[in-house]
Task: structure prediction
Amino acid sequence: MKLTRLLATLALTAAVLPALAEEVVVYSARNEQLIKPLFDIYTRDTGVQIKFITGGEGPLMERLKAEGSNTSADMLLTVDAGNLWQASNLGLLRPVQSTTLQANVPAHLRDPGNEWFGLSVRARTLVYNTTKVKPGELSTYEALADPAWKGRLCLRTSKKVYNQSLVAMMITEHGEPKTESIVKGWVDNLATAPFADDTKAMEAVANRQCDVTVVNTYYFARLMAKNPKLPLAIFWPNQNLSTKEAGVHVNVSGAGVTRHAKNPAGAQKLIEWLSSDKAQNLFADNNQEYPVNTKVAPSAEVAAWGTFKPNLINVKEAGSLQAQAVKLMDRAGYK
Result:
């Protein structure tokens, strides 16, 4: 009888205690203002709490490596396939088997071993001064090495992963000798030393310090939102189908489940949700990027730039050839 009363008391106590909410811990190299609105919606819809820690991609990967099996992180969210490949190469991520992610994320925008998945797409393209350049003068990334662009080119520093990834993808397409010749041509054509960021490079183009540069499209969106009268426009390079040009260089922000995740199922569900129709516009629009899910249309602002043929080489090459790309740029004198 006493045992029966004790069991009844325990059952009643358990019933009135608040259920512990499920939690997913995210290490994020994306800014808080870009991801918090999405996480808030996910929590509202599912009840799952998202705890996130933001920082640079390098320090976050070092933290994951140092923490090992003691980490609290279930998911790593970062920018650039080069960084995602690096995380995988360091053994920080685990494979995920998900028919949802297979369906929502195109094959060239995810890891062949299913350790990471792109969640938004950024195009690295040409921006030119509309008062100094006719669109017909532009054609490819490679053509910017031609003598016709002597003293007319501005670039962001080679130290940024975005340019390292671009050159790595060019190595995949052309091989090292030809790519090195192209990069040397870029250096020869520089109007000034490379800039610290894409925005400064575009401002130099707008101020007629140079005529053309290479930038991620969302930087163009931000700058034009602040000053829509700037004489700048986007050009999509490498679009000539008759010569089988590979297309516009694209990259991703993306995520993977950490190797030592305490809640791997919860992390996988969050990544799947971020790739869904419901979340994709929010995820991409927050930074004026393209949805990775091809069933979802880009924002009106992004769509206004027009359509383009992307390079379909798997973006993992941005990571696997990154070391070679850095050495090549050093040899070419690209600072």
